[in-house]
Every structure is written in structure tokens, then in C-alpha cells.
Write a structure and sequence with these properties.
Helix content: 40-55%
Order of helices and strands: HHEHEHEHEHHHEHEEHHEHEHEHEHEEH
Shape: elongated
Structural class: alpha/beta
Number of helices: 16
Distance between the termini: 95 Å
Largest sheet: 6 strands, mixed
Strand content: 15-25%
Radius of gyration: 32 Å
Length: about 500
């Protein structure tokens, strides 16, 4: 730009600024006679901020998680030294391996597709996926000697640095595979534990995940070379261990196992203390006879989305496996004013590691102690029946098989109507909803209210007007059949629990 053009440009802007403020009146002048350079804009037309537009806790957690996510499309090699501050971590490059021992080919493919989603959720890039049919896994290498040679060629050709196996492998199997493939071998259990470790946020959740990881690690300790040699103490050997360790002592692996056991004991004590707090809250709800509804189901079936839609909880929602681990309990009311709670729980998956079930048992007790289970299933999944069976296996393991169950077929907007009809035929006590669009939510709430336990004692009472507290409790804890305001007081007929019915007995008519 030339100097003359620049001056014309500045002059034009000065004229525009003058035109903008020509309407300034002397009334705008201050006490010294100067006019303020900037008139205050008229904001009377501006809309008031809508509280509903404020971000929820779940939205903020999701943004924070995405900020820390590793990006697959960015390179780690630097072309310019100035890019060092923007370098991204490289994703692990993995090959998936499965052994198909039972079921159909479709079952095997569904299991491998789920393993691929787990690997991507853990932060890896899937290069290849192979599986084979065997009557039983090979006891030495899980897939057999010949398949190991073929897998080695695939690993070398793709440049993979990790092999993920669809099953829980013995320590010897993992060690044999790593020795022959010269890359890291990880089984399905370790993969799920890694995802849980990434997504746990609360103190209790982190302690539960760490406990499960230590229980898994304790059986898989291994060392190399001198790490397994015996520790010498006092003047024994060149590297004496000093007082307290005289003579041949523990091996390194024994020392590590002892420290892991000490850490496990400490975590169990901490979780017992946290469980006491959770039990106190649960006992308070039970003492007040507040019904509870637990949302359970397969991971990524839409449990958190359904909780947000039913109660407006605002918890984190993400299209990812095991996106939320910490249970969320929300208080809500029926259309006639009765109070009940609705809780979201950790998602389940096929072959959920036993260590996780044990570690999260105190959390899963919310499901076993509930009055109704909303069993959410993904209607758009290729195998919804398999999801139902996998979840029910876990429900039996935690002692929740006797709790009444309502199957909620979610994602109706993306599901095949033929699949939904097939699931409904197999599960007569079910409803179809879409947590994303709101389809079927009103019908679901009506069914939930009808499934909640009803107060057991009928009453007919005339309450003085100064006992409005009892009328409020009837609205929250009981059922009102008729309510009439008379000259002597409020005439109420309905049903209540034992405690409330006892207080109403003095006003019975």
C-alpha cells in the first residue's frame, strides 16, 4: 500500500467514525463541557441470557477430554523447529487378533469390531484385524505356532508396535507372543483397564480402577536378567544390602509382589471408607422409602443421554465406549408429585474383566438395591440380543437378577425397524425411545411411573390447614386419590407408606 493510499484510507475511516457519532447531543457532555468519545450503546433490545444456554458439567468435561485427545492425522516429525510447541503424540499402531471358539461367523466379526472400538478408545490406530477358528485357544501362544509366524509377517509389514488379543491371556501366553513377535502383546482385559484408567475422574473411581489394575498386574509380574537375582544383605556379595537384609533375601519379583499386596490392602481400606459414605446416603433414601430407578446397559447404548433426557442431569455424553464411569444419582418426580431417584451406572461389555466387577462392586450395588432397572440396549447395534445377554450375565453376578426390569430400546432414530420389531417380540416388556430426538420419552416416563412401587397403606384423613407439611409429604411420598378443601380442613384420601400412615392416623375420618 502506498503512502497516499494509506492516508486516504485513514481519512475515510475518520469520516466514517464522525458520521457514526453525529447524533451525539449536548446532553451527553460531562460537567466540563466535553462530550464523551463513545456513547453508551442502547442495550434495551438485547435478549437476556438464557440459563439453558449455559454449558453443563458434562459439556465442560467433554471439552476438557477432547483437548487432551491425541490426534491421529497429525505427524510427529517436525519440519521446522518452531513447531516444537505444537507437536502431537503418535498413536499406537496395533494389530487385532481373535480366536473364534463358539458361535457364528457374525458373532466373531461383531466381537472383533467391538475390540477395534476399544482399541481406538484407548488411543491407538488399528492397522489389521485377523481371527481364526479353533476348538480351544493354544495353551502356549493362544493362536498356535503357525499363526504366530503369519502374525509376525503382518506385524513387520505394517510396522505395528502392539498386538491386541481378543481374550484374557495367561502370563505365559503373553510372554511367549512377545518373545516371538518382538512387540508388545496386550489382551482384552488390559485394554479395558487402560480405558477405565483414562476416564476415571472421581477419587472413588480412580481407586477402583487402580485396585483392578493391581490385581491384574500381580499375576503378570516379570523381570529381566539381574532384576530377578536374589538380594544380598550385610557383607554378602559385592553390593551388600546393609543391616536388616543379611544373607540371601527376597527376589526382586517377590519384593514387587509384596508391595503390590500392600497397595491393594490400602486401596481396599480407602474404598471401604468411601463405601460407608455411599451406604449412608442409600440408607437415608431407604429410610424415607424413596423409590430408586437404576439405568444399566451395554457401554455406549445411550444411558447418560437417557438420564439427561429424563431428568436434565447434564452429565457427560460422548460417542465412545466407557465414556462415563462415575455413577450419577438425580432426584426427580412423577407427574402426580411423588419423589424418586434415577441413577446412571458404569456400562457393561462382553467378557467384562472380573477384576473390574470386584473393584466396582460397591458402585454396582446401586443397581442391585434399586426398585426398577432400566435396561438400555442400542437398537442400531448389529447384535442387540448379544448386548442383552452380556448385561444380564453381569446383573446375575452382582445379585440384581430379581429386580424388576424394563428394557429400553434406544436410538430408534438410527435403528432398523425390523431389528426393533425383532427385539420387541423377544422382549415383550420393552419400550422404544430415542434419547437424541426425544421420541418415546413421554411414554417411557409413564411406564416408569407405573412400575414404581406403590405405598402399601390406604388412608382417609381430614388435615387441619396448619398441617400443610403433611399434605406436602403426601404429595412427595404417597398417592392422592382425592383431595378436597372443606371448612374444617383438607380432606385427603389415598395411599401412604407405614411411617406417613402412622402420622395420618390421628386425623383419620
Amino acid at each position: 500500500m502506498t503512502t497516499a493510499n494509506a492516508d486516504d484510507f485513514n481519512l475515510d475511516h475518520e469520516l466514517e467514525a464522525t458520521d457514526d457519532w453525529d447524533d451525539t447531543s449536548p446532553d451527553d457532555a460531562d460537567d466540563d463541557g466535553f462530550v464523551s468519545g463513545i456513547a453508551e450503546p442502547d442495550t434495551s433490545w438485547a435478549d437476556e441470557p438464557d440459563p439453558e444456554d449455559e454449558p453443563t458439567v458434562g459439556a465442560m468435561e467433554l471439552a476438557e477430554r477432547h483437548q487432551l485427545r491425541r490426534v491421529a492425522s497429525l505427524r510427529t516429525e517436525l519440519e521446522d523447529i518452531t513447531e516444537v510447541e505444537y507437536r502431537q503424540l503418535r498413536l499406537e499402531r496395533v494389530v487385532l487378533v481373535g480366536v473364534w471358539t463358539e458361535g457364528t461367523v457374525q458373532d466373531a466379526e461383531n466381537s472383533m469390531a467391538e475390540l477395534a472400538l476399544l482399541a481406538e478408545t484407548a488411543g491407538s490406530e488399528v492397522l489389521e484385524a485377523i481371527y481364526q477358528r479353533r476348538q480351544t485357544p493354544d495353551p502356549a501362544t493362544y493362536i498356535g505356532r503357525g499363526k504366530v509366524e503369519g502374525l509376525l509377517e503382518i506385524v513387520q509389514a505394517t510396522g505395528a508396535d502392539t498386538v491386541v488379543l481378543d481374550g484374557e491371556l495367561a502370563p505365559s501366553q503373553l510372554r511367549n507372543l512377545e518373545d516371538r513377535l518382538k512387540v508388545k502383546a496386550v489382551d482384552r482385559t488390559a485394554l479395558i483397564l487402560d480405558i477405565f484408567a483414562q476416564h476415571a475422574k472421581s477419587k472413588e473411581g480412580q481407586a477402583q480402577v487402580e485396585l483392578a489394575q493391581l490385581q491384574y498386574m500381580k499375576q503378570r509380574l516379570r523381570g529381566w536378567g539381574g532384576n530377578l537375582s536374589r538380594q544380598a544383605g550385610g557383607r554378602v556379595g559385592a553390593d551388600g544390602g546393609g543391616i536388616g537384609g543379611r544373607g540371601p533375601g527376597e527376589t526382586k519379583i517377590e519384593t514387587d509382589r509384596r508391595r503390590i499386596n500392600d497397595k491393594i490392602a490400602k486401596l481396599r481400606r480407602e474404598l471401604r471408607a468411601m463405601k460407608g459414605t455411599r451406604d449412608n446416603k442409600r440408607q437415608e433414601r431407604q429410610r424415607n422409602q424413596i423409590p430408586s430407578v437404576a439405568i444399566a446397559g451395554y457401554t455406549n447404548a445411550g444411558k447418560s443421554s437417557l438420564l439427561n433426557r429424563l431428568t436434565g442431569a447434564g452429565v457427560l455424553v460422548e460417542d465412545s465406549l466407557f465414556a462415563t464411569l462415575d455413577p450419577t444419582v438425580r432426584r426427580t418426580t412423577t407427574t402426580d408429585g411423588r419423589v424418586y431417584t434415577m441413577s446412571d451406572t458404569v456400562g457393561f461389555v462382553r467378557h467384562l474383566p472380573h477384576q473390574l466387577i470386584e473393584a466396582f462392586r460397591s458402585t454396582l450395588e446401586e443397581v442391585a438395591d434399586s426398585d426398577l432397572i432400566l435396561h438400555v440396549v442400542d437398537g442400531s447395534h448389529p447384535d442387540p440380543e448379544g448386548q442383552l445377554a452380556a448385561v444380564r450375565e453381569v446383573l446375575v453376578e452382582i445379585g440384581a437378577e430379581q429386580v424388576p426390569e424394563l428394557v429400553v430400546i434406544n436410538k430408534a432414530d438410527a435403528a432398523d425397524p425390523m431389528v426393533i420389531a425383532r427385539v420387541q417380540q423377544r422382549e415383550p416388556h420393552s419400550i422404544v425411545v430415542s434419547a437424541r430426538t426425544g421420541e418415546g420419552i413421554a411414554e417411557a416416563l409413564a411406564v416408569i411411573e407405573g412400575e414404581l412401587p406403590r405405598p402399601g397403606v390406604e388412608f382417609n384423613a381430614l388435615l387441619p390447614y396448619e398441617r400443610g407439611d403433611l399434605v406436602n409429604r403426601i404429595h412427595q411420598e404417597g398417592e392422592i386419590a382425592t383431595l378436597e378443601h372443606t371448612g374444617e380442613g383438607t380432606l385427603v384420601r389415598g395411599r401412604a407408606n407405614d411411617d406417613l400412615a402412622g402420622e395420618l392416623a390421628g386425623y383419620a375420618v
